## 1
Amino acid sequence: MRKTMRVIGTTLAATMVLSMTAMAADTFKIGGIGPVTGPAAAYGSAVKNAMEIAAEEINEAGGINGYQVELNFQDDEHDAEKAITAYNTLKDWGMQILEGTVTSTPCVAVAAETVNDGMFQLTPSGSSPSCITNENAFAVCFSDPAQGTLSAVYIGTHGLAEKVAVIYNSSDVYSTGIYETFMAEAENQPFEVVSAEAFTDDSSTDFNVQLTKAKDAGADLVFLPIYYQAASQILTQANAMEYAPVFFGVDGMDGILGVEGFDTALAEGVLLLTPFVATAEDEATASFVGKYEEKFGETPNQFAADAYDGLYIIKMAAELADVNPDMDAAEIGSALIEAMPQITFDGLTGEGTTWDASGAPTKDPKAMVIKDGIYVEAE
Amino acid sequence: MSFLNYLIGGISLGSVYAIIALGYTMVYGIAKMLNFAHGDVIMIGAFTVFIATTQAGIHPLAAILLAMVICTVMGILIERIAYRPLRGAASPLAVLITAIGVSYLLQNLALLWFGSNAKSFKSVVTIPPLRLAGGALIISGETIVTIIACIVIMIGLTTFINKTKPGQAMLAVSEDQGAARLMGINVNGIIALTFAIGSALAAIAGVLLCSSYPSLDPYTGSMPGIKAFVAAVFGGIGSIPGAMIGGILLGVIEIFGRAYISAQMADAIVFAVLIVVLLVRPTGLLGKKIQEKV
């Protein structure tokens, strides 16, 4: 810290002043890491924007334990090495708590560093289970495998179907992860999986074979643990072959209504398990969506909601642990790790969310159904 | 019944490959070069129709004509700017590398203009699907149009080459460029004409491809382009009926592979077939036997 101070101080007087205020330790320094440029930029930008909104609100309401929150968000371009660089930059800045990273691959790399520093890490949206294997790492979102299990349970307990077909992307770790746990849980459920067909990124345009098999097997529900772009193809092609089962997706399905040129009437009745939709009508969501749209000119996605909740989760845990900015990152870290399993959090992405020592959240999954071109909560 | 479904699906997919393969095989037969940018011209054609119909509100048929004009102009420009100056180059590799460069240029320009998000292409085909066997077998309008288009193009192209002067000139250039030039044939003009026809066909292929499989992004043409190239080699590169047969066979093999062996292995099967065919018949199914005179 002192060394950094000297370097910065000799280069820029203005920076010096800023750093001096930071030295007075009256603010919590919370870092964020995520892709703000590159192919996954939409996710990182959403997290960055939402964190800004949450920090503003928290600061206006008096901060955490009476201390203001200071944010610093670094770009990792969805790249593991750049994420490590970003993490080191943040440490030099004096980061005490990390909310990040946004995407799974960089998150796993950064998690290997944070555990050595005892830094508390809360990933809003890193959904690979390896993001949170260390004791200092927690997640706001469900892990990929959990989505598979929860989907199977949801379909089973709500009696949505007797015969289920699955179409998944075998070249994608997200899709395969959900598929595997779905199949494992399906054995305990009252429905039968009659067809499970894969496709790959290179063959993600023609689904006639997979759909024909599902149709011939008499599936009345097709489970799609895939992203919305391929799903929009499947819906279009199923319609062309006059096959109309119930389609059931997971959070990757969110966005299907925004595919340019897609006939949204085809998505009517599609169910998806997702923690957040911007059109939900509860007060908290409406307020967040309103602020986000006003400030950034676009509708927030699930990543934004996860990140917004993330900062409030940190606030709740920090208040329970009664930490203050004079403590170093490792001290705050160990206090927060102890506090996390004791909190119960209500937020945009779920009510009554709790954590155990594994770092994974426990909350009721929300199912949404597409009705008249918008998402509404399913019965 | 699902067997028939798969067969028709395979023929439909194969017909698109065949139309694309025609572009590869004609250019190879006449200019002796592989135009790897061909797949990306397909994508440009499809984007032209997408934008013309969704944003400018142009009638789909007019949009297809517009796409053919744009792709034709583009094909001629690519040939004139990127390939012709290199035709005399010492190494044939120079043109090949340039073709790969043009391919990436087109992809990245499309990425810049249209963004990376896949668009859902609205089918231009309006004829209703054909129902057979009491609804168990449904042949979509897109499939019918694709297969008919493939047959019409095949007949038209064969007639053009065998019955017209420019067609005969093409044959002459493909046999021997030097001799053709001595006979008063404008070799550069004929090669430009070949690119023009190939690119116009690419526009049609792009529309048919995206009507059947309605996903459109800057990489849409890339994989079908490679497979159509395989089809052209499979059927015997340089041969027009070969491109047709190669394309349709490849489509059927791909769909059957996906249906009866493994959906994940479908692409591997396609390329394995290519290797086997080349081992058994190095010139492809209908390729000319090359007789080296010593």
Note: Chain A touches chain B at residues 39, 170-171, 197-200, 202-206, 208-210, 212-213, 216, 229-230, 232-233, 236-237, 240-242, 259-263 (CB under 8 Å).
## 2
Amino acid sequence: MAECVHCGQECGKNPVVFDQKPFCCNGCSMVYQILSEKKLNRYYEMMPSPGIRLETENAAGTRYAYLDNQEISNRLLEFSDGGISRVKLFIPAIHCSSCIWLLENLNTLHPGIMHSHVNFVRKEVSITFHDGEISLRQLIELLHSIHYIPDISYDSSKKDSHQKANRRMIMKIGVAGFAFGNIMLVSFPDYLPGGEAIDRLMAGTFGIVSFILALPVITYCSSDFFLSAWKSLRKKVINIDLPLSIGILALFLESSYEIFSGSGTGYMDSLAGLLFFMLIGRWYQSRTYQSLSFDRDYRSYFPIAVTLLRDGNEEFVQLQDVRQGDLILVRNGELIPVDSVMMEGEGSIDYSFVTGESIPVSKKTGDFVYAGGKQTGAAIKLQVVKEVAQSYLTQLWNEDRLGEETGMNMQTIVNRVSHYFTLVILAIATLAFIFWAFEDIGKAVYVFASILIVACPCALSLTIPFTFGNLMRIFGRNGFYIKNTGVIENLVKTDTVVFDKTGTLTHSRSMNVSWEGEPLSVSEMQWIRSVARNSTHPLSVIVSDWLPAVADMTVEGYREIPGMGISGLLEGHSIMLGSRKFIAGSESPEDSRVSSVYISIDHKLKGYFKLENSYREGLEEVIAGFDGYQKYMISGDNDSERSNLVKVFGADDALYFNQSPLDKLNFINDLTNSGRKVIMIGDGLNDAGALIKADIGITIADDIYHFSPACDAILKSSEFGRLNHFVGFARKSVNIVYMSYGISFMYNIVGLSFAVQGLLSPVFAAVLMPLSSISVVAFASLSVTVLAKRKGLAVSA
Amino acid sequence: MSVIVVLIGFSILVAAGFLLAFLWAVRSGQYDDDVSPSVRILFDNESDKSNDSSVNQNNV
């Protein structure tokens, strides 16, 4: 079977042929056509099948008409002056070198585009254009037409601040590295045998030089540590940065004293080296997935503008300006942004993102429609009942955002350790000081400082960044994306796991199909398939995929009645597919949750296709793999699947059905209040509240770059079967942390035993301190990688 | 021996020059995206493309 030249998917039996090349759909061949006309064919040379195929209809239509509204487009533009504008767009489809090439050659597609620049890591393209020649709307429609659909929202500021923080961090590492290298250079003679022979002039100069070089290290590079230590002191807690700051300060003051009193050369090289390593650790830990977003709120899910009907005229207004009682128009494929009432049209609303259920719900005039669904079919008119911020789902979401972050109440391992660590070190230092004070007060001060210096828990502070940072990177390679390393620590402490059902335990897109009724002949199946192929309704697609593939026949008089069914004439036979009401004229008597497609041929009911959600592969292993956990399932659906799920979950009382989004939230709340540490695994907006309330919220997503509710981790849906392995691995990694702690304590004990005796020399410090840091970093990173390999996880791209 | 003081002075000056260059590179955003520059360098210039585009078309 041929593969599409553009997107690489199978073309099926009837590929669209253009330029003697096969394409899977008209959309892909269109893109090829546009690119070949403008001689941009190199796109296909760099990467085989680089394109992304559109799931839905290609035509942008009036979807971006709101961009003609000056106010809205001005908010999106980064810069606009004198006919030249610049816009930065997030395009999730960017994935390979061909994408970079094409998007940077946009000026070939339209002369109005002056320059475009791709940031691959953030999946962003920044485009400068003449706004007199091409409007923002035309520009975005152009991108849409070549399958690079921008995700338009206002919230890009968060990403910018992350970028700024990252730059600051890299600069600090640069400065610390510079100081480290050069102080080492000037300190080097001291470490050589016969170093005492260096004349006083040189020793003095070198001392001053290393002091000057250390100044930016202590003022600029270590500011984050001091700040964090100060903050924690004010909150009356001890975090790792407090003993670190004490160590750094002691090191700096003792060294300065030695340099200026002429009694020695100090430990400035150790100081700069330590900060260099610790900053690298912080940087490694803060490296997150820049193109993913874990903290989106409802604003980035809903469109930024809606079509308002005022006195029969359509106009575009920003979403927050929509008022109660307004009449809005929602077209095919658009989201319903507010809770509203159907006024006109046939609603067929796809709530797949809200509930995980992909079969559209039909709505009639006068029905209440919740926000969050997507209209499929002709345009509908709605009257707004509640403004966007008051809509049922968004309110649930906002309510929780106000509360403090639940993950914070768990004390991190490192802070618990550093609490005792600091107290012990201070005790030892004080005792040693008192002991030496009887002999020599000068020596006592020196010993006190030496103890603080050598006990500086830098190896301790490097353990977590490198263990969990590496773990996070490996998880990312395997389709499990974690917000930050703190999530891993919390993950380990959980003891309860709660699953959503639809879309989480079940597939959201594929279904089990079975035929109930009199057996169909081959030609009947052929007819049904030919009719069903004409419709894009999910049920028609599933039915036509399930039936054996045959050559397509031409359907005469094809009709599609939204919310009802489809019909057509084939070889003189009238074929009808659809709801029971459409075919048999009566409402379906049985359970409404199992979807059925009724079939009649020549107005005679033949039977129906029964479509049931299919469970994800590996479901039983995943549930069983959560060993020692309390397991719950909470679903908005009715209990038709109860018997199947009891088998999996083992206990009947672990299953909750008919739960509203608010019930889910309260359920999680009750669990956490009773002291359980909860993982919530869900997928849709109806789980959004519960995901935030849980200690760990994991979202399952087919497409990780598209919108997902606020959560702590995103799991690619194809990797669901490995979820329990991920959690198990995270548990194992904590052992690595404790082992690294053991190593760093060993160094500390050796160092301390010298320091209390007043024997700490600069050479000793210069060797011991970097050695302990490096060995801990090497141990932490390597053991995580080795463990991952043993567990069968991919460790490199 | 004291010439070493002068030499070290110069070496630190040179190193400081590189540090400044590094800081400038970070501030100008060269470390924001470490993937696309490595790919971009392999793209041909626009002028080449128009000349051999007919060949490219046949190769696809």
Note: The mean pLDDT of chain B is 75.
